[in-house]
Write a structure and sequence with these properties.
By secondary structure, this protein is α/β, with parallel strands linked by helices. Helices cover 39% and strands 17% of the residues. It contains 10 helices and 11 strands. Strand 2, helix 3 and strand 3 form a beta-alpha-beta unit.
């Protein structure tokens, strides 16, 4: 009887220890995914520190998802901060809600960025407004922040004289038609579509021949470049894996190469030497 009792106690103790360990892991994961602190002034690296003779007129620094090192990504606040830091452009990811409203959000679900749950495509924008962004840099400084609409983001870019690179991961003709109609209402100049999906870019080209398109691809082949030229594309957005040969091939095709996720001096120099003049970054600031 005493042995059974001791076994029961051991099992309870082990269960408690496992629960404590699991709680610690969950807290650690939450701390890892939540970026509460932004960059301090001494942590900021500027283009001129890496390439001293670089001219601000020969490059286009693009604040990736707004200035997401200082404010939650894909928010109006991050766009405003990008303009204040001297960025020429911002990029943001977009998703379409169940009721056809394009919003600024990277993931399919709202879980990562807000206190809500569910797929964007299954929620109306009114339902999404019930939830608050609770993740990102300096989140404590931005209480009650909501997921903004693409229209609000573009209007803000217009008012701040910022170019906008809109990343569309996937969509259909109906959704893209709504997006292009929004461009028409606001004026297309300064708005660019970036996508890893060829079909998205083809549909945008058919709906809006004037809209600039970029193909997101880390290892474009000759067929990709021929397709991009045929569809009037501006260039390739690449974050890694580009070789000297591929960079030369892009240049020979008369296309531009933009560097994505430019987060280190080494990477900036590599793309700059390739002839890149459009840089998507949340780590290196203008000036």
């Amino acid at each position: 009887m005493a042995i059974k009792k001791r076994k029961t106690i051991v099992i309870i103790v082990v269960a408690v220890l496992v629960a404590i360990a699991l709680a610690a892991v969950l807290i650690a994961v939450k701390s890892f995914t939540r970026n509460d602190g932004g960059k301090s002034p001494e942590q900021i690296i500027r283009f001129s520190q890496i390439i001293p003779d670089i001219s601000p007129y020969e490059i286009m620094p693009v604040a990736k998802r707004g200035l997401c090192a200082q404010a939650p990504e894909n928010t109006l606040q991050s766009i405003e901060l990008a303009a204040a830091e001297g960025f020429a452009a911002v990029s943001f990811d977009v998703r379409e809600t169940r009721d056809g409203i394009w919003v600024l959000l990277r993931d399919e679900k709202i879980n990562t960025m807000t206190d809500g749950r569910g797929k964007v495509s299954k929620l109306t924008y009114y339902e999404i407004l019930m939830f608050t962004i609770n993740n990102g840099a300096n989140i404590a400084n931005y209480p009650d922040t909501k997921i903004p609409t693409l229209e609000d983001g573009l209007l803000l870019c217009r008012s701040l004289n910022l170019n906008a690179f809109i990343r569309v991961e996937k969509s259909d003709e109906q959704g893209l038609s709504r997006l292009v109609n929004l461009f028409t209402e606001l004026g297309r100049e300064g708005f660019t579509i970036v996508s890893p999906d060829k079909q998205v870019l083809e549909i945008v080209r058919q709906l809006s021949p004037e809209t600039e398109i970029w193909f997101e691809n880390d290892s474009p082949g000759k067929k990709d470049l021929d397709w991009l030229k045929l569809n009037g594309g501006m260039g390739v957005v690449s974050s890694r894996g580009i070789t000297d040969k591929q960079a030369e091939r892009i240049k020979d095709a008369g296309l531009a190469l933009a560097g994505d996720n430019i987060d280190s001096p080494k990477k900036l120099k590599k793309f700059y030497d390739y002839g890149t003049r459009v840089f998507f970054t949340d780590s290196i600031y203008p000036g």
